[in-house]
Amino acid sequence: MKLALCSAVMTVGLLGVVGASSDRIGVLDVAHGGTVLLEDVEEMTLRTQGLLLRFLETGELQKVGADHRGKLTNVRIIAATNRNLADLIQKEQFRED
User: Are 14 and 27 in contact (CB under 8 A)?
Assistant: First the structure.
């Protein structure tokens, strides 16, 4: 079963969140030392793509709402899509980097 998530829910689901009432652990934090499969990556917003890119470059997991850098996390990412990313990049719907 596939579930389409709005941008905010997807970002929080990946990174986690620090909130007034409670903190929530994200998938990338739970998967420390393991592998995460991201299906339909073309559905990510440009903002979420940027946050994921920063995580991939630094290994630092900064939760949504946090005002400080997060802990280092070691996760292997496998990304999948059935769309032509080169076309989406040309239409500026997917980040080239």
Answer: yes
Question: Which residues have C-beta within 8 Å of that of residue 35, sequence separation ≥ 6?
Answer: 75, 76, 77, 78
Q: 31-82: per-residue pLDDT in tens?
A: 889 998 888 889 888 988 988 898 889 888 777 767 667 778 888 989 999 9
**What count of other Cβ atoms lies within 10 Å of the Cβ of residue 49?**
15
Partners of 64 in the β-ladder? 17
Residue whose token pair is 């290994």 = 59
